[in-house]
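Readers outside the structure-tokenisation community will struggle with the description of the input data as it stands. I therefore recommend that a typical entry be quoted early in the introduction. An entry of this sort, consisting of the sequence and the corresponding backbone structure tokens, reads as follows:
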Amino acid sequence: MSQDEEIGRGTSSGKRKSSGGPRRATKKKSGPEMLSASINNLVSCCREVSDRRTPPSSDVPSISECIRTVRNLPGIERGSDLYFYSVQYMRNQDNRALFADMETPEEKLGLLRYLFDRFP
């Protein structure tokens, strides 16, 4: 038999031969340890997702800053439905970040009117 034939044959059971080195004993985790590890992984994932979605609070204007801006927008009257909708909208940090990203007063007003018309 040639060397190529010997290499191609392998073992009869189809399993690899042991490397001959010592085997490491693996310690099985108990149910509570596995549960604890899973919970820790889940918490880490949630923190990462939250950190990616929410800008640092120092970068987001406060509710009062945003309401001050809303009061100065042309076309929004204090006491109107759009005004009170805008005040409620500013309670959410992500909403304030989006509002602050609008560069002009026209964009800010357009955003608020768009949301008011579509999501009353």
